[in-house]
Design the sequence.
């Protein structure tokens, strides 16, 4: 699979992200991020949960079904219990009201197959987590301090 084909494939999967924010503000989205042995909240990356009925295990090559929404709901519930001062929401990365733009090229590069790693991909962290920018829902562009209306912009966090 070429880089361009991998990029289009990943962008085409049903994909979900979970964000938390403080209850008293609409600013400050924090993505749930997966590290090797832990999950945290961070302002620059977010774990992408995707769905497929043809997911292939990188170690043995077995094919199985993955439901990204179920995985996102599980982590949303867990983090809500751990952080009662925050509100957690699930967003469909392909929905018009998704508050973030994903750096798909960065994410796809991390998902490049590699026989030199145990995970089977070039970068395990980047194959699970994507960089994001919060976007203006009116303009569909990254948040901009100079927007005269500041319409539906959630935060300045998340840069690349």
Sequence:
């Amino acid at each position: 699979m070429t880089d361009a084909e991998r990029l289009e494939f990943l962008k085409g999967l049903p994909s979900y992200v979970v964000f938390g924010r403080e209850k008293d503000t609409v600013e400050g989205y924090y993505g749930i991020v997966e590290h090797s042995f832990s999950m945290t909240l961070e302002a620059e990356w977010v774990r992408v949960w995707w769905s497929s009925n043809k997911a292939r295990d990188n170690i043995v090559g077995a094919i199985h079904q993955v439901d990204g929404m179920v995985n996102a709901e599980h982590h949303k519930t867990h983090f809500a219990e751990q952080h009662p001062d925050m509100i957690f929401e699930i967003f469909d990365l392909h929905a018009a009201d998704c508050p973030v733009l994903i750096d798909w090229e960065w994410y796809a590069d991390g998902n490049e197959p590699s026989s030199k790693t145990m995970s089977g991909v070039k970068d395990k962290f980047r194959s699970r987590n994507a960089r994001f920018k919060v976007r203006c829902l009116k303009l569909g562009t990254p948040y901009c301090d100079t927007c005269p209306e500041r319409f539906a912009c959630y935060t300045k966090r998340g840069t690349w």
User: Anything to note?
Assistant: The first helix runs from residue 3 to 12. Residues 61 and 122 are 17 Å apart (CA to CA). The chain has four helices and ten strands. The helical segments are 3-12, 68-82, 104-110, 124-128.
